[in-house]
């Protein structure tokens, strides 16, 4: 996750990109929102925490609900307007040969 981390969700659509100490929340029809964050790991989860923002990443598997893609992590994002649930990490949609 050192090179960045990306999480996505559907219904409603959203995405969070983490790079360094910044998380950017993107949603359709809204301006992107940036949060200054710190990272906190324990045995159960990785948490990105900031003022009015937290993103908790736990091991998956996770389906995005819109495609056959399976992601390595389950993600929950809590911010001023509520909680968004989705997927993140590595995407494995190669399927069986």
TrEMBL record:
This is Uncharacterized protein. It comes from Sphingobium fuliginis (strain ATCC 27551). The lineage of its organism: Bacteria, Pseudomonadati, Pseudomonadota, Alphaproteobacteria, Sphingomonadales.
């Amino acid at each position: 996750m050192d090179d960045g981390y990306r999480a996505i969700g559907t219904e409603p659509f959203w995405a969070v990109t983490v790079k360094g100490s910044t998380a950017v929340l993107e949603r359709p029809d809204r301006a992107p929102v940036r949060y200054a964050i710190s990272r906190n790991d324990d045995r159960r989860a990785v948490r990105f925490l900031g003022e009015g923002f937290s993103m908790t990443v736990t091991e998956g598997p996770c389906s995005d609900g819109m495609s056959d893609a399976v992601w390595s992590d389950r993600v929950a994002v809590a911010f001023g307007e509520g909680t968004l649930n989705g997927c993140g990490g590595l995407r494995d949609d190669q399927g069986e040969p």
